[in-house]
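Sequence, please.
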């Protein structure tokens, strides 16, 4: 490791330590009262009222020390009930930091209710773990990937805010612009201003919008039968446009990955052997595409379906039939996965012929 790298990793390590110390002592920044649990007493255990489950309920009496506000350093008594399942409650232990609402008693003792745990320390730790891992593995490319991710998150948040506050905005049009922006920004930052990047951008945009067009045509021909928009019932906007926008953004990640993988591979082969025939390059591209097509399709399927597992279990536990449960919870998710898979399949030949076109153009005499 050279001196420059040592300074860089040393600076990152220092930032991790200082930021962790900061969030562990930033109580003064919060308007809500925060208490640190100093004693825990388990009062009672009882069975849940639902005979179909083996869940149990527990009652705790907590004593916390206030760490901010006008009553700082005073003790507060809190009651907490939690369950084994832990669906929406928590078991608290000594040292935990929690948000509380204070209700002063007639005497000198304070009592109140628990609003929830203070999680910023754990969120920051997970964030730093992600950042450090990306930098260690990706180095310079990892740094640009983080910058790209930050820019994309900020731009997407701004765009959704504008859409939510505007009655006349078209989400599909907004997301189309975002897809172009995300593609260009991400690939330029990660791969640089190279011919390979231009080829990957062209393949990504062509594959993504082709998949969207196919999805739109099929939806029009089938009158959207089988698509259940109940989860969008309270948005008060056109569910069709919102669904198409989600398809567009959701397909982008997988399509971009396919495009840059195949394009980079073909350019790497060409750089190693400038005399390689285009026929062999195309054959290699098809082999690479065949190898990654199945895995990326499975990635899309599991990514979309995993979020519906809790609702599927809830429907089944309440006596719904399997067919009705899957239709209600997976119609949109499976459609998103299917359209994304179509985008992946289309992007493979598009990436191959786009990359080989640029390579052939480079070979042609000027």
């Amino acid at each position: 490791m050279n001196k420059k790298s040592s300074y860089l990793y040393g600076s990152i390590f220092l930032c991790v330590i200082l930021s962790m110390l900061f969030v562990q002592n930033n109580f003064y920044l919060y308007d809500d009262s925060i208490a640190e649990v100093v004693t825990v007493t388990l009062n009672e255990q009882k069975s849940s009222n639902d005979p179909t489950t083996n869940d149990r309920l527990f009652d705790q009496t907590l004593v916390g020390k206030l760490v901010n506000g006008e009553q700082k350093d005073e003790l507060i008594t809190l009651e907490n009930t939690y369950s084994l399942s832990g669906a929406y409650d928590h078991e608290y232990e000594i040292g935990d930091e929690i948000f509380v609402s204070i209700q002063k008693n007639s005497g000198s003792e304070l009592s109140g209710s628990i609003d929830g745990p203070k999680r910023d320390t754990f969120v920051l730790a997970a964030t730093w773990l992600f950042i450090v891992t990306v930098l260690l593995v990706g180095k310079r490319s990892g740094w640009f990937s983080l910058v790209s991710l930050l820019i994309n998150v900020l731009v997407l948040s701004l765009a959704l805010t504008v859409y939510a506050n505007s009655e006349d905005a078209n989400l599909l049009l907004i997301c189309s612009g975002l897809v172009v922006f995300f593609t260009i920004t991400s690939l330029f930052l990660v791969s640089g201003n190279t011919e390979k990047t231009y080829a990957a951008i062209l393949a990504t945009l062509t594959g993504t919008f082709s998949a969207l067009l196919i999805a739109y045509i099929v939806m029009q021909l089938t009158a959207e039968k089988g698509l259940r928009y109940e989860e969008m019932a309270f948005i008060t906007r056109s569910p069709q446009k919102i669904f198409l926008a989600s398809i567009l953004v959701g397909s982008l990640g997988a399509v971009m990955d396919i495009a840059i993988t195949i394009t980079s591979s073909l350019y790497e082969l060409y750089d190693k052997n400038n005399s390689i025939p285009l026929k062999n390059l195309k054959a290699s591209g098809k082999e690479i595409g065949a190898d990654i097509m199945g895995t990326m399709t499975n990635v899309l399927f599991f990514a979309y379906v995993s979020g519906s597992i809790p609702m599927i279990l809830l429907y089944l536990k309440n006596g719904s039939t399997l067919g009705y449960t899957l239709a209600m919870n997976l119609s949109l998710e499976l459609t998103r996965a299917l359209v994304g898979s179509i985008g992946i399949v289309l992007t493979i030949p598009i990436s191959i012929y786009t990359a080989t076109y640029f390579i052939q153009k480079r070979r042609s005499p000027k």
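The radius of gyration is 27 Å.
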